[in-house]
Amino acid sequence: MRILSGIYKGRKLSSPKKNNIRPTSEKTRGAIFDMLNSYFEKNKIISNNFVVLDCFSGTGAFGIEAISRGSQKVIFSDSSSYSLKLTKKNLNILEISDNFEIVKVDYTKKFSFPTEIDLFFMDPPYKDKIIEISLNNLLKSNWLKDNCWGVIETNISNLEFQNFKINVVKKKKFGQSFIYFIKL
Fold first, then answer.
1. Cα–Cα dist 123/135, whole Å
2. Which of 58, 64, 66, 149 makes a 20 to 30 Å CA pair with 36?
3. Is 31:153 a contact under the CB 8 Å cutoff?
4. Is the Cα torsion angle 22, 12, 69, 40 positive or negative in sign?
């Protein structure tokens, strides 16, 4: 697993030793960032000053990719201590010492944080209804800006957004996963 673009391009990350972490493939992660960059450029959205949230961070690959590509700050969050340690290990491997925060969050429970997020990545475990519960709690957390962008990876082909004030900008299938690009 490696970083695909930016100042850390080509640098390798540590992979999980446990089977309960399912990292997004490099190919899919690269396609997600390419689609975001293309959309942002086309619509003249400056994304290098974004504060980014990497929900269910796992290895931290999404957030580290965002740092590598110039994001202002990344908040890595997960409920798993193992995932947070792996994220910290990968930040240390690349000698990233600022522009990030690591926060333990259980998205299946209500929470609140004062930071305003411009873009979030959410790739929860593919089980039960964790995506709906987690997204609902994130939207109620006071963590997201009103015009926040989001990328959601799930195995659900018809994720329901009717209970949320969300605009699905694009939906794309990658293998067994469905990627939803959304705007609040």
1. 10
2. 58
3. no
4. negative
For residue 48, the tally of other CB atoms under 10 A from its CB is 11
Structure-block tokens of residue 94? 């690349």
DSSP bridge pairs for 122: 55, 152
pLDDT (mean) for 51-80? 95
| pLDDT of 68 strictly over 90 | yes
Q: How many CB atoms lie within 10 A of CB 95?
A: 8
- Through-space distance between the first and last CA atoms of the chain, rounded to whole angstroms: 31
Strands 73-78 and 117-122 turn out to be: unpaired
Q: Which residue, chain included where needed, has tokens 């979030």?
A: 120
DSSP 8-state code for residue 127: S
Q: Which domains does the chain have, with CATH numbers?
A: 53-183 (3.40.50.150)
